[in-house]
Amino acid sequence: MQTLQRFKVVLIIAIASSFFVNCHTESSGYFQGRENTFTRYSLIYYESLNLSAAEAEFFEFNEDGRKLNLNLSVPAKVTFDKSIQGVKFDDMRLKYYKNFSGIKKNVSVEFYYTSNNIPYINDIEMVNSVGLPISLSSVQKGAGLNFTFIGAPVAKNEQVILKINELTFTNNKEGSNSFDISSSELSSLPIGNAKVSILRMKRVPATSAPEAGGVLVSAYQSAEKTISIQ
């Protein structure tokens, strides 16, 4: 049972990560250009698991560059809240991470190369929560979809992302608190049950990073619900 639960946690996190993780060519090859290291630090809350994940990932030159395995090529150290306790490295997705029970409001991420011990320290604040209205239980394809999501309106540097099966709709209009989706945009949905979830994400530049720069990502992933497509 414990093995099944751990598998469920990993599966949900992997699926949810598709909202905000781009595809990159990953490599564990040797890397010396420390000034070319682009950093991405994330704090993500998964409502269905009641779990927060702090993550640190590294790329060559920029976020679209080759993903770097600093665990092997150029030894580095990552701490969350000034502690290495509980920090793990994912060999498949090439990231450092630490999970926290419940919603974590903020986390301090520190990264440095072990050879020079010069720290880059960033603080990430959790975004506001977001959710789907209880009244959203069915959708008439021919009528489109209009609803107000639960939570604060879209703020600066934020976007709210709605996913219905494989369809994704993004609202990045500051001050908006709703989705207005036309019938034509829903035309590819098959009749029957559909999985729906909503995510709020904020991206801002890292305050402390190597010359290539970095980004801080915070996200609140709502629990998935099933609705009827008619």
How would you sum up this structure, described in words?
- 7% of the residues lie in helices and 43% in strands.
- Mean pLDDT is 88; it is low at 1-5 and 21-31.
- With 230 residues, the chain is mainly beta.
**Structural class label:** mainly beta
Query: How would you classify the quaternary structure?
Result: single chain
Parts with pLDDT < 50 across at least 5 consecutive residues = 1-5, 21-31
The SSE string, one letter per element, is HEEEEEEEEEEEEEEE
The major β-sheet equals:
10 strands, mixed
- Write down the overall mean pLDDT: 88
Describe the secondary structure blueprint for this structure.
Blueprint: H1 2-17, E1 37-46, E2 51-60, E3 76-80, E4 88-90, E5 95-101, E6 106-113, E7 120-125, E8 138-139, E9 145-148, E10 158-164, E11 167-171, E12 178-181, E13 192-205, E14 214-221, E15 225-229
Parallel strand pairs: 1-14, 8-15
Antiparallel strand pairs: 1-2, 2-5, 3-6, 4-5, 6-7, 9-12, 10-11, 10-13, 13-14, 13-15
What keyword list fits this structure?
3-stranded antiparallel β-sheet, 1 helix, 230 residues, elongated, 15 strands, 10-stranded mixed β-sheet, mainly beta, disordered N terminus, single chain
